[in-house]
Amino acid sequence: MNRQEQRMLMGNEAIGRGLFEGGCSLVASYPGTPASEILSSVVTFSKETPLPLHIEWSINEKAAFEVALAYSYTGKRAAVAMKQVGLNVAADPFMRSAYLGIKGGFVVISADDPGPHSSQTEQDSRLFAHFAKIPVFDPSSPREAKEMIKKAFDLSERYEIPVMVRPTTRVCHARQNVPCKKPKLLERQAHFEKNPSRWAATPQFIYDLHKLLNEKMDKIAEEHTLSPVPFASLPSRNKQCVIASGVAFAHTYELLEEMGLFDRLDLFQVLLPHPLNRRFIDMIQSDYEQVLVVEETYPVIELQLGNGKIHGRKSGLVPRQGELTPDCIHEVLERFLSGRSRAQKPKGVSPAKRPSLCPGCPHRPAFFAIKKTFPRGIFPSDIGCYTLGMNIGAVDTCHCMGACISQGAGFYHSYAQDGKEIPPIIVSIGDSTFFHAGIPGLINAVIQDARFIIVILDNSTTAMTGHQPAPHLGIKADGTAGPAVSIPDIVSASGVRFLRQCDPYDVPSFSSLLEEADRYCRSDEGGVAVIISKHSCPLDRRASKPERLYTMEVSEACDGCKICLKQFECPAFDWIEADSRTKATRGKGRARIDQALCVQCGVCRHVCPKGAIIVTKEGVP
Amino acid sequence: MKQQIIVSGTGGQGILFLTRFFAEAAMIMQFQVLTSEIHGMAMRGGTVVSHVKVGPFKSPLVREGQADAGLILSKQNVELHRGLVKPDGSVFVNTDIPGDYFAIDATGLAFRAGAPAMTNLVLLGFALGKKGFFCDADVARKVLTKISPPAQLEPNLKGLDMGLASG
């Protein structure tokens, strides 16, 4: 190990460190797995320098992108970080930024999630970069990710073009010892040079800007230092080679080593999958008879090589979807070497335990009340911890950030048209998601005269991604106080005339509020009804307050109906199988509360129709 | 020095803490290290497995049947993740049911000691006592002192010692 200072960094922290060391002075992001820790790590590193850094959790990825873009116009280095579907939200500014270019280095980090582990698609941001005509780096480890951030800034400034760095989950959430340096001091002053034909380019200028963009990409495709790295002595006598990028390269390298194949197969690591180096493409086509491409998740390198002897995702030799684990690549290599072309069926996976809402989670009583009040309702929902409301049947749809409100409107217009009774439509959306993309949907629903209930689940945090602040909390990314924007004010200003707030822990009041909202929606003067379900996430130490504690027990009155297990689904409940020998279960199974998991929120006292879930002790901690 | 380890359990059991523990231990001992973990949805009580590779590796993932040792915090995960460990590797399971592995009722011990949150450290201490890993108890104490939140340090060290004493 060398003598440089080594730190144990998660991939996202290594990326944050790369931004910090690379002289980046603005970072904007919206949290999303697997990219969430990039921005918070920059906050941590920023304490090592007195230099000013602007670090923000933006309201959504489009806003983050645009803030960073204009900042770069002033000549300073900026970065924006998001998960892959966040790039869909930022697609509009992203596509045009390739044409207009940038001034100060501008790095776009879009973290992909092959598998997927925690995403609604397996989309490949490298293909998005290809579509946008933007260069993209593909790191295989945290250490490499940090170095690529610096290379990306350099490339970005030399060509005045945004550059993407695309890590995947296995890089973002790997940890590695990473050599660290002091940050680069750029000492740049803001200077925006006006040039309306570029920064405000109307269609008449776009043709020339597009031509310029194409020329930039041609030149980048010729840069020798960005050419794939060979793991073979060239020129080689081997007629077969493997081309790999990202973490799939790391898996492949280890496998070739383990299988003793390095003397038979040449390996190339692609650092910049787009634009793929021109000479490399020519060399592969002339020197090899058989080529295997191992990349995640779409065939980006394979498409650029475009030739009948290429085997990969497109040819079907590599499975066309899913993560490329070392075991999967092992099978692929064996097929490639043996000449069998088709992917085998993946073997069955034993069932794993599904995730569920935590004990004490305020979303659980909100969903319990929704489902109980409207057993035949339609429940559009959205992205966050609360998607897990599907476990108790209170989430019917989940599409993309903020979609639930407009989906609620879509359901309403369809049923309303038929002139029959309209089923209750209850939309649930988290506080952070509401700000991210829910507000335009709310205004649209109001002005189109849709009538349904929206429950805004305000738990005072962005819980799923690690408790980042949301706009109504008045907390900046570095934890200091800042201005807050109130949810009730926005809802009222959007034209909603039914707005109530309730603590979902109070299940009876919450349920009667839902009934009241339903009556409002169906009244002549009705419209969109909004209920703010307000209770802090118990996992968020900053937000949670001391609560009244209840010691709970399941009494003899339990008749084993399992309503608490299925419709409330608290992890602290479990099931004792029937045992005729013990009197306690009277020959039937019954529910039990695991006191080690119970957080004593006491909400389950409202759940049992037989009154068997009882409070044995109550008090303030 | 090359060692591959898996840590398996359900979200909330401290799998990420143990993963970070091994990474820091490797750093202290001047080994290269790579770990892999999963965040987000899976952490809400779902099945979680993380991988630790100490030594000159490039890939952060452990292949089927390649791990030298495994820590399994929920007994229902034995069926899921035992296969990641070599047939002759060491597997340490938090369970009161004996089997083809080293068993310790870490949950019971931690619960009786009034600190259910230290279950993961009881299992770790137990495995370290059986010389299951590249690092020993002294390194473990140094790492815990470095990475534990101040309020958790004492219970963490106590959990480690309980596990060591149960070996």
Structure description:
The complex is a heterodimer of chains A (621) and B (167). Chain A is 35% helix and 16% strand. With 621 residues, chain A is of the alpha/beta class. Chain B is α/β, with parallel strands linked by helices and 167 residues long. Chain B has helices at 15-28, 78-81, 106-112, 119-129, 137-147, 150-166, and strands at residues 3-10, 33-36, 47-54, 67-72, 85-94, 102-104. Chain B is globular and about 40 Å long. The relative contact order of chain B is 0.18. Strand 8 (174-180) of chain A pairs antiparallel with strand 2 (33-36) of chain B.
Separate helix tally of chain B: 6
The percentage of residues in β strands of chain B lies in 15-25%
Radius of gyration of chain A: 28 Å
User: Structural class of chain A, please?
Assistant: alpha/beta
The low-confidence runs of chain A, each spanning 5 or more residues with pLDDT under 50, are: none
Largest sheet descriptor of chain B: 6 strands, mixed
**Low-confidence regions of chain B:** none
Helix content percent band of chain B: 25-40%
| Structural Rg of chain B | 14 Å
Looking at the structure, what is the overall shape of chain B? globular
